[in-house]
Amino acid sequence: MHNDILVSNLEIVFGKRIQKHLGLVQGSSVRAKHAGKDLLAGFKNFVGGELTAYTELMQESRAEAMERMLAQAQAVGANAVLNVRFSTASIAVGAAEIYVYGTAVVLAEE
Amino acid sequence: MEILVQLAILAFLLMVGYFAGSRRERRHYQSIMAREKHLNRLPAVASRVPPADGRYQQRLVVGNAVIANDYFKFFLAGLRQFFGGRIHAYETLMDRARREAVLRMKAEAQKCGAELIFNVRYETANLSWGLNNGMGVIEVMAYGTALIPGR
Known about the structure:
- Chain A has 110 residues and is an alpha+beta fold.
- Helix content of chain A is 34%, strand content 45%.
- Chain A has a single domain (6-109), classed as Hypothetical protein apc22750. Chain B (Translation Initiation Factor IF3, 2-Layer Sandwich), CATH 3.30.110.70.
- Chain A is elongated.
- Chain B has 3 helices and 3 strands; from the N terminus they run αβααββ.
- In chain B, helix 1 (2-39) packs across helix 2 and helix 1 runs parallel beside helix 3.
- The radius of gyration of chain B is 20 Å and the shape is elongated.
């Protein structure tokens, strides 16, 4: 959907110059685990190893946060988001927030 | 009598945790090392300044993994927390999650033809949530900027 927006956690794009800074853009997503999947995870917890259901949960959550950040970037007219960072917080029992933020800029050919 | 039943359940869980857990961990390490060997060609570095010749395209790549400790290790860690000192069980847990996350990030970068990954960062979260008395469940997310040749 926002494939035309460049996303990077570097601060420079060689061959391009930053024409305009548009400030911080951000997106967040809070997801709760599914009770049925959690039962399985609870069992798996005795033997250890990867909890695939949780890995996927966090991936979906991250994709949603990114999508929101990119929608914001598009709304302010950016064509790139630089210096992107993620932040994860376990905010309550069974729920985690993923927060993603970066600087929205307009890049122009040098 | 009830105490005996409880002890038997505990012993059973510890045994299941020990045997299944160490087997799974060994396998996971084997798989990690095999993939690391394969992906060594694609270096991931923490430097923030990309090579200046500018013949690269940039793209954010991410990898994550949620890994749980087994019951036996959880029990050992509990003892260790009483006496203090190094908790090896949790060290391997963190190590596995970090290496797995980096491998997934590298795999994504390789898929889009990257040569290098710059500005690699880790983000760690505790997802125990009181599940089974807060047994170690952690998520590690690794991300960086893949440099893809050609523009």
